[in-house]
């Protein structure tokens, strides 16, 4: 079975898409709360100054029915518009022009070009560089309070979709660390009753940028992996 058609793999990819959606939302806010807007702007501006950064996170998925919670840990490395994302049994690389979806258990890697004209949403979801480069027309934000999360003083901000009828979310709740201006916690409430909570450890910022090769799947290191090249 092709790894990408495996039901478990499809679920993982769907989770990743939602995870990236959360980051996209961080920069798609309205104009009704000047202070919350400034906090998000400042966080985005600081993120862009990092030569390279690694981000460890944990995602908890809760369904408001009888299904149990699921927890998944992951790690992300970013350099400019390049990134590498690792979760159990799944790795994504983006070298600036091609996406490599690597399935270690299946010994398979799918290579594809991002095509924003064909599917704008998927391109945005799969590219963390767009998290901080979207227009502020889809969500409005509100500063709720200041609090402490895991010993880190943070701003709590609620985000609400402007287009309520078409949005997949009723609202998003985020926490941004005051001193470091880093994302600490995020919880998304989907209209179908599913909730996604993402906790972030303090970012590991590299003073020297990672090499470009770090963000490309290395065939020589994985000689037994089947390559499915969809770039032609």
Written description of the protein model:
This protein is an alpha+beta fold and 232 residues long. 18% of the residues lie in helices and 41% in strands. It has one domain (3-229): Lipoprotein localisation LolA/LolB/LppX (outer membrane lipoprotein receptor (LolB), chain A, Clam), CATH 2.50.20. It has helices at 7-25, 34-48, 120-126, and strands at residues 52-63, 70-79, 82-87, 90-94, 99-103, 108-112, 139-149, 152-161, 169-177, 183-190, 194-200, 204-206, 226-229. A hairpin with a 3-residue loop joins strand 10 and strand 11 (194-200). The longest helix has 19 residues, at 7-25.
Name the poorly predicted regions: 25-31, 117-126, 130-135
- The total number of structural domains is 1
What is the distance, rounded to the nearest whole angstrom, between the alpha carbons of the first and last residues?
Answer: 22 Å
Q: Give the C-alpha Rg.
A: 18 Å
Q: Whole-number average pLDDT?
A: 78
Could you say what the CATH topology is called? outer membrane lipoprotein receptor (LolB), chain A
Approximate shape = globular
- By CATH, the architecture is named Clam
**How many distinct helices?**
3
Helical content (DSSP H or I, runs of 4+): 10-25%
Structural class: alpha+beta
Strand content: 35-45%
Largest sheet: 13 strands, mixed
Order of helices and strands: HHEEEEEEHEEEEEEE
CATH class: Mainly Beta
The number of strands is 13
